[in-house]
Amino acid sequence: MKRTKEFLRDLVFLARPYFASEERWSALGMLVLVIGLTLVLVWLEVLFNSWYGRFYNALETKNEAEFFRELKVFSIIAFGFIGVSALEALAQLGLQLRWRRWMTRQYLARWFTQRAYYQIELERSADNPDQRIAEDIRQFIDYSVSLTLGLLSAIVTLVTFVALLWGLSGPLAFALGGNSITIPGYMVWVALTYSVIGTVLAHLVGRRLIPLTFQKEKVEADFRFDLVRTRENAEAIALYNGERHEAPALRDRFQHVLDVWWSVIKVRVQLATYSISYSQIAIIFPFVVAGPRYLAGAITLGTLIQISSAFGKVQSSLSFFVSYYRSLAEWRAVMHRLRGFDDAVAAAEAREGGPEVERAATSTVAVEKLTLALPDGRRLIEDTSLSFEPGARTLVMGPSGSGKSTLFRALAGIWPFGDGRVRIPEGARTLFLPQKTYLPIASLRDAVRYPDPANSASDDALREVLRAVRLGHLENQLDEVAHWGQRLSPGEQQRLAVARALLYRPDWLFLDEATASVDEEIERLLYGLLRERLPETTIISIGHRPTLRQWHERILSVSKDSSGKGTIAPVSTPA
Asked: How far apart are CA 326 and CA 264, in angstroms?
């Protein structure tokens, strides 16, 4: 009962937003259409049942005219059934596509709002979010529509055919202990008993399928992630001769996939064997129970066939959970993954803490009582206040792990651990260049303009800035769409990032090891370009190289004081 409540709670939680959204009228309209067509199909099944009686009675009495008349009736019902089934399938697919479009857009929007995608990765609060958005949403909607409509059809069919079976089967009278006992509509009770026993046994056989399905989806996603990671780091792995490590690691990961799959297959085979046996017995079972009445002359052949057909409909309706147990297990696992993802996004949205970043009527970038921590709670920098004056070029140095890059993220407003305040001049254009440059899979033109696709720089300007950062060999490839993050070397990527800064012309430019992958000559070139072409831009750099000192008027050091407290303090003024 508890699991059923959780199941229904999660279903309502995930499905309700779409049917209460701005698309609710079209969604409800499509849903009503699909439900209406489903009910028409049940009505046609009733017509088929009635036809069975007339047709087989005509065969039994060898009535030729009635035989051919019923064949015509069958053709009409059959063509109607085919047409309505096609319309129902089309309407169902249309509802699924519309729902998936809306739900995917909503999840993408929430994923990017308040940088939830970044916080989820920092905390590892939901694995493989790409799979949950691309695959789990699709499966959730497919199962929600098909299984809900299947259940509705089963309920309507059950109510309709129970009445038919009750009337067709009639009472069953027998003597017990000298007393005469009569069971009205006895075939209904037989069908109910058969189905209840079947459902209970199906649950006992297949109940392990829900957790196994959840685990299967996770290990499949992990294996796919490792394959993509290997592809994206192909050069580094090759340089390390890392295939000797990567291949066995991937084989081990895939073996884990196979181990889980074998467990799933074992349960599926057991469930399939049981379900097939259950279904096959159900074919002959009504004839075994009702056959003696036909042999005794109490009912006609047509009535016997009608009883068999109605019994099958009642039994299949009551056995809905037996027939769809595997799909129900997968549906539950998908809902569990989507709820986990939704909870992770909600936690990111509701997260309190982290340095507060505000735009203020000030000319400086200032941090006040800044404390920065890691996700595990360890503090890197504590209670630090400092300011960056406009026009000044500042270099932040310090040992690895001291918190330099974390400071960079705090200034960008993306670091959620710690407290304090960061003030940035209102209306100022800022640009942050991380050590690892992000390049979208797009045309080179859009890659250079990123993150400002509305940049009106002409192609001539783009070619000129590429030549300036010594990427002139790319100037004729502006229209080419490629995975530039894989095509360009790390040094070329960093040069392209500086080209972006030259085009974007920010008021404040923050660089985190932004020239670490180029040699000293190219570093001098890039900083020289920034000084020459962006004379009004305030530059704040984070780096290790002593050669960076000459390009900055102020140097700050991130270090620990005698008490172990992380601080940021001026070091000296370069000569």
From this structure: 10
